[in-house]
UniProtKB/TrEMBL annotation:
InterPro entries: DUF1980, DUF1980_C, DUF1980_N, UPF0703_membrane_permease. It holds the Pfam family DUF1980. The keyword Metal-binding does not apply. The keyword Transmembrane helix applies. Keywords: Membrane, Transmembrane, Transmembrane helix. Residues 10-132, 194-327 form the DUF1980 domain. Residues 138-197 are annotated as: Disordered. Residues 138-150 have a biased composition (Polar residues). This is ABC transporter, substrate-binding protein. The chain crosses the membrane at residues 12-32, 38-55, 101-119.
Length: 333
């Protein structure tokens, strides 16, 4: 029996990728990399790597003296299937070279870093590089543009109703009330961010009632609704949590309660959040996780109206096991 080192190395690489993906799923760290709707695809990749490992392991040992397609590569020669189809490729038995070393390192180093280095959660430093406030202001501006277009079309379809106004909903907010900040902050792990149309519409209807509680499963949808129509929600009481983001130009009593929204994978993560004002803001460090309760007002950033939360209560909280948000996925029957 002849042992082939390069074939063994390839087998270990395939097994390593399979084990690494499995570990991400087993520990729950997979949510730090991809949107939960891609979990099955990720599991399929782990299974495929394992299958390729079992195929590759058969090439690690060969019987001396045999000459087949998997062991017919010789330096400077071709592996010929017939007289008119000649080709040369490496079956893992050619001498090791610097070119091969570079190829193996390109594949192995990311795998080793995955095993040896802890997954880093995106923080305010990354948010700053992504232009957090520009992103927040941009979301608000684009949402308001869509709202104006929708209202203009509705008035055109229903002439005579354009001047009708709805009385503002009376807020149940009382400054300084001695009640705890509502919990309601379950994390959208697994497939909890998947809903039917009926479930989603029910969640949106709850936006019109009482205190607006930003659960992870519906956070991004509520954020979009409020950003696109700030006047409608002005004076409404909200309860939410996130990490602290600050940048130059903020007043001492200002900070942003922020979250990262992952659409597909962590590489496309964007920041969303609410500019918040309260006297203790200056004492809170960046990246601390806090829970706040307050009332929505209209703020401004670079002459763009954005939602502003006037905070009445706040408290330090733990970073959740899954710190990212994911857009709602509508389940189709």
């Amino acid at each position: 029996m002849q042992f082939h080192v390069q074939q063994a190395a390839r087998s270990l690489i395939l097994l390593g990728f399979s084990v690494f993906i499995y570990m991400l799923h087993f520990t729950g760290k997979i949510y730090l990399f991809i949107n939960p709707k891609y979990l099955l695809l990720s599991q399929a990749a782990a299974f495929l790597f394992l299958l390729l490992f079992f195929i590759q392991i058969t090439r690690v040992w060969t019987i001396k003296g045999t000459h087949d397609h998997d062991s017919c590569s010789h330096v400077g020669e071709c592996c010929s299937h017939d007289d008119h189809h000649d080709h040369f490729h490496d079956h893992g038995t050619t001498p090791f070279s610097a070119k091969k070393l570079v190829s193996y390192l390109i594949i192995v180093l990311p795998l080793l870093s995955g095993f040896m280095l802890p997954a880093k959660v995106l923080d305010s430093a990354i948010a700053d590089k992504k232009g957090a406030m520009l992103s927040i202001a941009g979301s608000s501006k684009s949402g308001q543009s869509r709202q104006v277009t929708s209202e203009t079309k509705e008035q055109a379809d229903n002439p005579g109703t354009g001047d009708a106004t709805q009385p503002p909903e009376e807020s149940d907010y009382q400054a300084g009330q001695d009640t705890d900040i509502p919990e309601g902050t379950e994390t959208a792990t697994g497939y909890e961010n998947q809903m039917t149309d009926e479930e989603y519409n029910k969640k949106i209807e709850e936006l019109e009632k009482g205190t607006i509680i930003f659960n992870d499963s519906i956070y991004s949808s509520y954020y979009e609704e409020i950003s696109s129509n700030i006047d409608k929600f002005q004076g409404r009481k909200v309860s939410l949590y996130g990490f602290v983001y600050k940048e130059e130009g903020f007043a001492e009593d200002q900070l942003v309660v922020s979250r990262f929204l992952v659409t597909h994978c962590v590489a496309d993560a964007g920041i969303i959040g609410f500019l918040s004002e309260f006297p203790d803001a200056a004492t809170i460090e960046k990246d601390m996780w806090i829970k706040i309760e307050g009332v929505i007002e209209t703020g401004s950033y670079m002459d763009t109206p954005i939602p502003l939360v006037k905070v009445s209560k706040w408290e330090i909280t733990e970073e959740p096991e899954v710190p990212y948000l994911y857009p709602v996925t509508i389940k189709r029957n």
